[in-house]
Specification:
This protein has 371 residues and is an alpha/beta fold. Helices cover 43% and strands 18% of the residues.
Length: 371
């Protein structure tokens, strides 16, 4: 008999986002691997662009209101209703608001074990959030983190136990097997940058890094992908483009915007060295995406990125920008070393971050919790 896993979300699963994509990956995997013995069911707000029938697994939708307080009560009502009717063997909570929501009704379902996946970092939560979250986590069967680094933060900064690690993944729908025929060769090295316009990505610092790399005498192109979300973002895009072209010339800058996941998967084939300048990253999915396309990755040593890359020589800090610049220059000047790096990062992706391994680790976790 199939065991039922109920996934609780406070955003529609078809809204682009890390938690939604990761939930989609594991649910798709369980739906295909019926021999594993699990039926995934997602509870989330009404879908935005898809129908529930578009998915391999069941989705139970609920309505949302116009305020945070109203949304809380509507989530409580929906969670209570669907948990009673579905009678799951395990509840997997994927987002912090859903964890807090479930906390209000968890006593009504004492017989059902539940777990929570923290896809951020412990210090990213406000004190008020922790006030609501911690009591709920103490009753959980497991806290799951996506890096050993965040597990360590929880171990040192809380009494929540037990804690397990399941590395995050990227979607095999778009980032499938590496296709060598798609690899694009250029007349000069290409530095890749990609991400949303947001404070965490620190695009002014990215421009400073490119200034420093160009000032060092390096000859290269920049291929940058940006996505916008809020008012004023377009102005920031124009400023980033202006600064990059001032550094390396208009002929050496390619600006792309609002690419789909499929387009992003192809984008990395044209990148030699992917540069990350983030000042906050819980995991760093963009790094893993680049690794899956045999790009070398050089990154700031923040959050989970040192663990994801696993190569200290390719890490630098904002106060030691020269280390990053020197590393990229050394790779540009040594094609054999660059090729070794590409193979290293691709192998690391295959060993740790594929969707297949992500699903396997979840099945192992579920087997241990459901007996």
């Amino acid at each position: 008999m199939m065991k039922k896993i109920l996934y609780l979300l406070e955003y529609p699963i078809d809204l682009p986002g890390g938690a939604q994509m990761s939930t989609l990956s594991v649910c798709d995997g369980l739906a295909v691997r019926k021999e594993a013995g699990y039926e995934p069911v997602v509870i989330c707000p009404r879908l935005l662009t898809h129908s529930a029938t578009d998915y391999r697994f069941r989705i139970l939708e609920y309505d949302m209101g116009d305020s945070r307080v109203l949304n809380l009560f509507m989530r409580i009502k929906a969670f209570k209703k669907y948990i009673r009717t579905e009678k799951p063997d395990l509840i997997h909570i994927e987002m912090s608001e859903s964890l807090i929501t479930y906390g209000f009704i968890r006593r009504k379902f004492k017989e059902i074990p539940y777990i929570y996946t923290d896809r951020g970092l412990l210090f990213g939560y406000r004190k008020r959030s922790r006030l609501f979250m911690d009591p709920v986590l103490r009753d959980a069967r497991m806290l799951v983190t996506t890096t050993e680094y965040n597990k360590g933060l929880w171990t040192e900064g809380s009494d929540i136990r037990p804690i397990s690690v399941i590395y995050n993944t990227i979607s095999s729908r778009y980032f499938g097997s590496y296709d060598p025929d798609k690899r694009i060769r250029h007349d000069k090295p290409v530095i890749g940058l990609a991400g949303r316009i947001c404070v965490e990505k620190d695009w002014p610092f990215a421009c400073e890094f490119i200034d420093a790399l160009a000032a060092s005498g390096a000859d290269f192109k920049v291929d940058i992908v940006l996505s916008t979300f809020e008012k004023g973002d377009d102005e920031q895009v124009r400023e980033i483009y202006r600064r990059l072209t001032d550094s390396v010339g208009e002929d050496n800058v390619i600006l792309r915007q609002e690419l789909t996941q499929a387009e992003m998967a192809d984008y990395y084939y044209g990148v030699d060295i992917f540069l990350m300048t983030s000042q906050f990253e819980s995991f760093g999915k963009a790094a893993v995406e680049a690794m899956s396309r045999k790009c070398a990755v050089v990154s700031t040593a923040v959050g989970g990125l040192p663990e994801v890359l696993g190569l200290e020589d390719n890490l630098y800090t904002k106060v030691d920008i020269n280390k990053g610049v020197d590393r990229i220059r050394s790779l540009m000047e040594d094609p054999e070393k660059l090729e070794e790096q590409r193979e290293y990062f691709y192998r690391r992706y295959l060993d740790r971050y594929t969707e297949e391994k992500y699903i396997e680790r979840h099945i192992e976790l579920y087997d241990g919790l459901t007996g």
